[in-house]
Structure formats: structure tokens, C-alpha cells
Amino acid sequence: MIGFVRLLARNQLALAGGVVLAIVVVIAAAAPILPLQAPQVTNTADRFLPPFSDGHLLGTDHLGRDLLSRLIWGTRLSLSVGFAAAVIAAVIGSAIGIVAGYFGGRIDNVVMRGVDMLMAFPYILLALAIVAALGPGLLNALIAVAAVNIPFFARNIRGVTVGIAGREFIDAARLSGKGHLAILTTELLPNVVPVIVIAMSTTVGWMILETAGLSFLGLGSQPPVADLGSMLGEARSALITNPHTSLVPGLMIFVIVMSINLLGDGVRDALDPRLRSGALSRPQPATTVRRTGPVPDGPGAGALDLQRLETRFHVGRRVFRAVNEVSLTVGRGECVGLIGESGSGKSVTALSVMKLVSSPPGVITGGAVFREGDDLVGARHDTLRRLRGDRVAYIFQDPLSTLHPLMRVGDQLAEAIRVHHAVGRDALRRRAVELLKAVRIPNAESRIDAYPHQLSGGMRQRVGIAMALANDPDIIIADEPTTALDVTVQAQILALLDDLRRERGLSILFITHDFGVVAQLCDRVAVMYAGQIVEEGPTGEVLDRPGHPYTRRLIACVPELGGGRRQLHAIPGLPPAVDALPAGCAFAPRCDKTRDACRQGPIALERRGRRAVRCLYPEHAAHAPEAAQ
Ligand code: ADP
Questions:
Q1: C-alpha distances in Å from residue 497, one per residue of 492, 493, 506, 508
Q2: Domain limit, last residue, from 480, 503, 529
Q3: Which end of the chain has the lower number of beta carbons within 10 A, N or C?
């Protein structure tokens, strides 16, 4: 709840709407105790007094009644009727929607066809017909407005309910023996309430307008009682001669509806779970950079050189240190593996290279990434745009979510080339076919016109690789490109990447959590834990003689085919939350070799030749830092 209010307060327009609405509501609620003149007392001697007249701050109407007093009492009435209609429509409409969506089948058909019939009427005609049948009066106007809005809620909520009713947790509740009523109230309703609140917050303003409309036509509140709509209606004949009598209620309706709508939009955004973790704004095209410490000097080594890179996420008051002083070099034509458990910071490291971490909430707070002597972290956005997908390309884990579902794969490949190079249509098509052939897609000429969903997972990933190769990049950053594939396809994709690397002299930063994949493809490997590199070295050496206890335990978790039966020792516990890292070694709480010194303070990455280990008591004495030996 506090999080919701804080998110809402961050949206300034919603906050302004909320404040204005609160002021209006408080004044309207306090009408009986405010020193106002009686709203219905006429005084024909004082007709049409202008605003700021003696004793009448907003002037008087055609019967000499005080406009300020009528405005406040009228607002009170309009707000009450509008809110009451919204609550009634929401309760009845949502109940219909939930029942229809949950039970489905014939019940759904009968109920929703009835709702559709109501929706087929123009709503204002329907409201007029209801009031005509019931007779004019504010209560009947309220019933009419609520009734015409019931279908809106019923349709909305039914749609959401259908989606939820088919989910496994509802099946589980049913299997646990819960009855329909219990499932509806304890399982379904809590998941639907945010949608009801959102629908209500965005329709209350509309309902106030509809009630005002009916009153304006003389079908709502009856004289001498007036709501804002009937005040407008009565002032209609004096619109030209005494415009203030229309302006006063008109402006109030405008202010109420605007403030409710702004607040409603804010409520909708704040209740959207996808927006909770980030700010309410769209991510910027490049990650924000706020480097506090000294910036490492260039030009850097190899094709790509990450130096003391630091990336954080600022979510509310919490700071997630996803990448901490990561230094890593990828040589020309070299394949370097970055390995670690989920959440260890591998993807954020990879995305930080091209400033692709979404901001907010991501911020690069330190370090540099050198490519051909230039620091990419400090680079301008247009430089990055030129390099992205051209010199430095990415392959992501799930091609189904990265490929455009409504575009043919050939068009997507062509687009990847066209944004960087001016190439004619025919040449683009030829190049797209070549690329598909290069990644060993059979029948490339016909496959080029396929949509992503028409291809298998392995084929889609090949298209992803083809897209990365489209502009002959120097560096490919592959973020778990084979995780979603079965082992035979995975082996083919890895072999393909290896061939391409050798043919084209590509440098590859390969992110994975699988040591088998690293062994097959990578020259060197860096092991990440809780945002830090804890070990680095040539793949064979690290696999044969791991230096860090974490690496040893990770390798021990990999089953070995043909290696006989052995027990796999899972690493107990979970990686630490990166917003509350322990003072010393982040692995200490899970390590079987922890001593007091491990918990004292930060531990440096000790380099010995081509190996580096961040441990006071490594597996092999050759890696041990001098101080601890
Ligand atoms: P990996 O790729 O190793 O599985 P990630 O690089 O995706 O891990 O994530 C590293 C850490 O960054 C995680 O612990 C996660 O909590 C944090 N993180 C990633 N994205 C966000 C985000 N948008 N907001 C807050 N924290 C995030």
C-alpha cells in the first residue's frame, strides 16, 4: 500500500489531480458546516449579481440565489451521485463478469449476450429510456447511469476473469476441495480487484458527466434542489447576457472530471505490476551514466575491454549492485565465457557494454568499456547507435520474444542491414538468403518468407544468429543463446558459432550457466558471483583445477555422461540479494571453507599469470594471496 502511494506520488499529474479532487471533496463534504447562505432562498431584487458582489462571492443566478452556496451544494450532490453510480455499476457489473468468466459455457453465453444487447444501445438513449420509464428525479438518473455502465464493467472483468480462471492456481484450489464461492472470493476476486479499481477510477468522471447531462436535460435533480448539471441547464437561457451563471458550474464540472481522470490514470499506472519495479517513464535509449570515481584510462586491450565496470539499479530507496567492478578482456578472435548462477549479473554486464540496461532504474556508476581505444560508456548516443548491431551485435536467449511476430524473418534481416547501410531491395534479399544459408537453414530461399512462429526453436535461434551476423560485426555478445533449446540443437548451434568465429575472426562474449557449453566453445572463462568476477582463466585450466571454491562447487554440479554413478552435490543456499551484500566474500555464507577472515572485508581478485581468483583460501596454494599464505 505504501509502495502504491509512493508510486502514485511520483506521477506529478496524478498527484495534482488527487490534491485538487481532495480539496473539492473536503469542501463539498463540509457544506453543512460552512457559513454559506441557504442555496434555495430566492431574492428577485438581487438577480444576476456579478461575481465579487457584496455578500455573493460568485454572484447570483436568475432567481437571486447565491451561486457559491449552490455551487458547493450542487458539487456535493453531483459527486455523491457520480460515485454512487460508479460503485453500483462496478459491483453489479463485476459480479456479472466474474460469474460469466469463471463458469464459462452456457452461463457465459447467456449472460454476455444479454450484456451485448445492452451495449448495442447508444448509452445516452438507453439512459433516457430508463429515466423515461422510471420518471425524472435524481435517484432515477443515478439508476439509469449505473445501469448503462454495468455492461462496460461486465465485459472488462469477464475478459480478465477468463484469463485467470484457466490458471493452475485455480485448478489447485479446486483440487484442494474449495467450493465455487470460496474460489470466487478468495482466489479470483483478489486478482481482479486491481482491474475493477482501475476501471472505476477511469469511469467515475464519465459517470459524473452523464448524470450532469441528464440533469441538464431536466431529467435528473428537480428544482429547487440543484446539482451541477441542472445549474447549467437553468443558466442556459442567460448564457450570453450573464455568462458567469453557466461558467461557475461548467468550470466545476471541468475541474472535477479532469482531476478524477488524471488521478485515475495515475492509479492505473501505479497498480500495473510491470511498472512497480521501474519508474513511470519509458526507458531511455541508452543507460544513464553517473560515474563517481576516476574513469579508467584507455585504450584498453583486445577487441573489447571492460575495466572496473559498475552497474546499479535504483528502485525506490533500494540500490541493487548488479555489476561490481567487473574487469574482463575479450581478445580478437577469442571466445570468452561468462558463467554463474541466475542473478549473478551476467546479463547486466553484457547489456552494460552497449549501454542497453534500461534506465530508469539502471545506472552505470563506474568503470569503462574500451573498443578500439574508445570508451563506450562515455560515448554519445549516436556513436552507440552506429555500433549497435553493426560492429557489436547481440544474440539473446529467447528469439521468440526478440523477433517481431508479425514480420517475415527475411524482412527483419533486411531491416537489420538497412538501418546501417544503404542497400537496394534486391541486394538486401540476396544478402538475407546468404545469411540464412550461413547459419545452415535449409531451403533458405523459401524460409526467408516465413514468420517466426512458423519456425522451430532451433531455426528461430539461427535466425537470431543470422541477424547478429548481418553486418559482419567484430564482436558478438551471446546471452544464453542455447538455454531454451534441446541438447542436439544446442550442439549444432554451438558448432555453428564456433565455425563462424573461426571463419570470420569474431570475438565472442558468451554468457551461460552451463560449464559443458563453456568447455565446448570458450578459450577463456570468467566466473561471476553476486555481481563480481570471482575467477578467471583459460577454460581447460579452470575446469581441471578450479581456484575458487564456488567454481569447484559449480563444476561438481555438472553431471558427467559415462563417468559412472556419482552423487551431485548441489550448492546449498541461495546467492545473496545484491542490495544487501555481505561485508566480506559474498560466497562465504555458502562456502564449506569459510574462516573469520573471509567475512572481514572486500577480497581482491588476485592475478597469477593467466589465472585470477578472488579467494583468501583458494583450492590450490598457487592461487593464494601472499597475505593469507
Ligand atoms: P543473470 O544474467 O546472471 O541471470 P542478471 O544480470 O539478469 O543476472 O541480474 C543481475 C542482478 O541484477 C539480479 O540480482 C537482479 O536482482 C538485478 N536486476 C536486474 N534487473 C533489474 C531491475 N530492472 N531492477 C532491479 N534489479 C535488477
A1: 9, 6, 9, 9
A2: 529
A3: N
